[in-house]
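ok so i was messing around last nite and threw this chain in just to see what happens. nothing serious, just curious
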Amino acid sequence: MKIHLKQIPVDGLHLEGDEECPLPELASEGIRCLGPLFYNIDIGVSGGALWANGSLRQGVELSCVCCLEKFAYEIKVPAFALRTELHGPETVDLTPFMREDLLLNLPAHPRCDRDGDHVCKAATKSGEIGALVVAFVFS
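result:
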């Protein structure tokens, strides 16, 4: 997402919409984008720097670390914020800043049952095995 500095009014600019997914390089890691990146940000220029704050949402497909099945997950960045010094160019690309915040909000160990609306097949099986072991030990 490139911002043209001359198009930002003195009192700032509000941008809302969607962009192409900024995470295509993660396909080799088994992470696939599901649709565009949604953004809702305010942008302004102050003291020789560009500032932006707002929220980001990106749907992705991840693999569960327990059962290895793919599931949909929405990366949410509710407090996206940045300040970057301006060094003369007419445009500033916000994509690297957005990409970084999205990557920081990816779960380190994604599980398909994280939200509680799904039961992981592997967790169910390990629970059954654990119950059998406990029953065997105490009988």
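not much to say yet. Helices lie at 95-104, 121-137.
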